[in-house]
Amino acid sequence: MNPELSPEVLLQAYSTGIFPMASPEMNDLILWYAPDPRGIIPLDNFHMSRSLKKVIKSKKFAILSDTNFEAVVRECAIKRGSSDETWISEEIIDSYTQLHRLGFAHSVECYEDGKLVGGLYGVCIKGAFFGESMFHKSRDASKVAICALVESMKRHGFALLDTQYTTAHLISLGAIDIPKVEYDALLNEAIQLENAWWNADFSWFKDFF
Q1: Average model confidence (pLDDT) across the chain
Q2: Does the pLDDT at position 2 exceed 80?
Q3: Which of 5, 87, 175, 180 could form a disulfide with 170 if both were Cys (CB 3.0 to 4.6 A apart)?
Q4: How far apart are CA 102 and CA 147, in angstroms?
């Protein structure tokens, strides 16, 4: 494992608002980022459209957590659309899989007819969840995964859902940009919450509506 991406280094970095990405233009050199402004989804600001509610009510997708973490990361790493590059290198995959084994990285997985069709993964430190990436192979699968994540975070005492950056997709779900100084204050509070905890049981979600 790259010492630069050891669990200790990663956890310290995330605790101070810094995260790594591999640069495909630089032979997957690991670069570190602390964007200003910073993207977050306020947990009380998550936007669930009528169409998304309809999909969830249909029970088309089954939501699980932490049953296939590495597969989710590898799906996120697959080049899709017009881009032929990915920041999720083999070193990134290995390092975050190790974090997962230690209980600091988690996946939310979306299944359709028993097949993995969407999901997301991220790093978890007490009351903060740092979303890393998501994917979908079936329409709305990643949106359903985010919805399940937000509701689980609300149930288990979390305070911060960090999206790193905002995109049109995330903004449609309630993501906003905030100044780094404001983000740092939220992060500092979230990582001191002793009662927040990750619960991989998402069986309640099938009866969410």
Answers
A1: 95
A2: no
A3: 175
A4: 25
Residues found in the chain? 209
Alpha helices in the chain (DSSP H): 7-15, 50-57, 69-77, 90-101, 141-155, 168-171, 180-190
Distances (CA, A) of 27 to 22, 34, 59, 98: 8, 21, 43, 22
Write the burial class of residue 194 (CB in 10 Å: 0-12 exposed, 13-18 middle, 19+ buried). exposed
Half-sphere exposure (CA, 13 Å, Cβ side) for 162?
Answer: 32
User: 183, 157 in Cβ contact below 8 A?
Assistant: no
Q: Could you state, in order of their start, the residue ranges of all structural domains in the chain?
A: 3-207
Query: Tokens 């969830």 label which residue?
Result: 56
Q: What is the DSSP string of 8-43?
A: HHHHHHHHTT-EEEEEGGGTTEEEEE--SSEEE--G
**CATH code of the region 3-207:** 3.40.630.70
pLDDT at residue 89 above 90?
A: yes
Asked whether the beta carbons of 198 and 123 are under 8 A apart, the reply is: no
Task: Report how far residue 68's alpha carbon sits from residue 55's, in angstroms, rounded to the nearest whole number.
Answer: 23
Antiparallel, parallel or unpaired: β 128-136 and 160-164: parallel
Closest C-alpha to 185, from 14, 42, 17, 11: 17
CA distance 134 to 150: 14
